[in-house]
Amino acid sequence: MVAPNANTAPICPAASSNAFRAAAAVLSGCAKRLPPWHTASPYVAAAILFAIVLIGFAYVYAFGVDVPWYDEWIVPILMQEHARGGVTLDFLWQQHNEHRIFFPSLLFLGIALLTNGSIFADMYVSQGLLCLSLAILFAACRRQASLRRALWTTIPIALLLFSLRQWENMLWGFQLTFIMVVCCALLTFFCLSRLCEDRWRLGFAAAAIAATIAIYSSLQGIFVWPVGVAQLVVAPLNNRRKTALLTAWSAIGIAEWALYFHHWHTVSIHPTFQFSARYFLTMVGSALCYAPQLALAAGILLATLTAMTLAVVGYKRQWQEQSFWLALIAFAILVLAAITLGRTGCGLDRAMNSRYTLYSLLLIIGIYGIGALQKRSEPRGISRYLARITLDLAVFGVAACFVEGLTVGQGLHDQREYERFLLYTSDMQPDEALTFFPLHDANGKIDVDQARRVREWISVMRQFRSGVFADVDWSARQELPNPALPIRTSPTRFAIDPIHPIYYWAGIDVLSISGWAVDFPANAVAGSVAIVLDGKTYPAHYGDPVHDVATQFSNPQLANCGFRCYLLLKDIQPGDHVLTLKIRSHDGQSVYLAPHNLNIDPRFNGIAKPRKKENSQAQSH
């Protein structure tokens, strides 16, 4: 026991009771000033929705990199053609793999002209289209429920729509094409679901325009038209008007299908058509998990929930009332079936591609929307239980994918940061290094002359100072040090990771040289790092995160002091070599040198081993 302090006065029970009552009165007064829950609830739901949307934009900000990758080369191509005055209808209409991307190409060109060819901007526009899609889904909820209920019902939909399982659609600017199709499809289905005797002209026209944009944004858009036919069949219109609108819709759809497939051809590198139920179900469940086995199980469960939901809607004869949500389910199934037909031959791993999860999410949203928006007056039935199961499954999937999405995003960011470096230093890189940017010809085959084409488009980016050439501060860290710079005599700090060969794209064996370096006397990051091997200087990418160094030196500004460089093994003969780090000072006015002996032993199949342990200080030699 602790002895009481003689200098401390005893506590009076009456005084303690009075203090408690006073505190309770203050809290009660504060509670009375707060608005009632039914008044504050919509604001709370709106704040949660805003936070979810903000996560999507923050994800792009944190992990997006302004560098073209695969199909994103369309941006410098469009800029080049625009400079030549060659952006014609024929140019915009040409087939891109299986797709006609007429409207996205116009959007890509407009964004490029406004932002000087920024790929980053395409990612943000994709987020904007997801926001527009969310707004349409909220409007559909609001049509069937009160404002408060619609806002709270939209929160799980927002979690699905901005799930980090969609990392590829968020961090690959070209996926704007897929998101554009979905956004236009949602607008089409919403307009058709609101057709009535008093308001049908504007709704029908808006639906037809949105469907036209969808079909000429990506191949998946062709399915908007047949789903629209089903919606018109159940629309609350008299038979005469319904027949007229069905005839007009079908005629426009058939004409646009015919135009789409005019001079259309299959891509030679893609497999022949075949359908696999396992592939289809795995793709359906891939929106909720990263593991193929779990995705297959989730796909089977979602397929069961879909069948049960459709059975309940049919039993209650709610085809008209649930027209919008049923259209989402039908569209998602048609698109996923088409992808399965065209990609099954690529292997089951392709079913887990992040880019396809957008259509799987539409299926989940459709099931959830039907059950969650049942009228309050109806008895609690199987629809709500199905919605609850779907909600639990969706929340679990989104939560499980969140951490994995951050990990994938960081890995993709690091990969594309180096690719960004390769583009900027392309004049000093061999042709093999540019195979990081695989290109396809009109038949889908890898372009054997891609290095020349990449260099040509890089010159366009350099001319317009776009993309990798727009960030002046970043560019300065990638420059080779001036050979005339004086050599510092004071030591600095650095470290070299174990040097080893790795296998890279297109069968290229490279020597990986990485580590970290700082300007220790200046207590700051270095100006840049270069690798000198046998007298030849190679640029190294500088600026990778190395948080241990910041902790070691108690300086958070040293967090991004990592470097890496990949040298072609075929250009390095077995035997002894001299490898020197050339570390430019933070102010760029001098350099530190750190020489090392390196031995490449042919008995170890090109494995490079340092002959001595790397030093932690560098100075003039």
Q: Nutshell version of this structure?
A:
With 621 residues, the chain is of the alpha+beta class. The chain has helices spanning 13-33, 37-63, 74-84, 89-93, 102-115, 119-144, 147-161, 167-171, 176-193, 201-215, 224-233, 239-260, 277-285, 292-316, 323-343, 357-372, 382-424, 450-464, 472-476, 547-552, and strands at residues 492-496, 500-504, 508-519, 524-525, 528-533, 536-539, 541-544, 562-568, 575-584, 591-600, 608-610, 617-618.
Q: How many strand segments?
A: 12
Low-confidence segments: 1-11, 440-446, 604-616
Tell me the β content: 5-15%
Largest β-sheet summary: 7 strands, antiparallel
**What is the C-alpha radius of gyration, as a whole number of Å?**
30 Å
- Number of H/I helices: 20
**Span between termini:** 70 Å
What is the mean pLDDT? 84
Helix-strand category: alpha+beta
Helix content: 40-55%
Q: How would you classify the quaternary structure?
A: single chain
Taken from the alpha-carbon principal axes, the silhouette is elongated
Give the helix/strand layout.
Elements: H1 13-33, H2 37-63, H3 74-84, H4 89-93, H5 102-115, H6 119-144, H7 147-161, H8 167-171, H9 176-193, H10 201-215, H11 224-233, H12 239-260, H13 277-285, H14 292-316, H15 323-343, H16 357-372, H17 382-424, H18 450-464, H19 472-476, E1 492-496, E2 500-504, E3 508-519, E4 524-525, E5 528-533, E6 536-539, E7 541-544, H20 547-552, E8 562-568, E9 575-584, E10 591-600, E11 608-610, E12 617-618
Antiparallel strand pairs: 1-3, 1-12, 2-3, 3-4, 3-8, 5-6, 5-9, 7-8, 9-10, 10-11
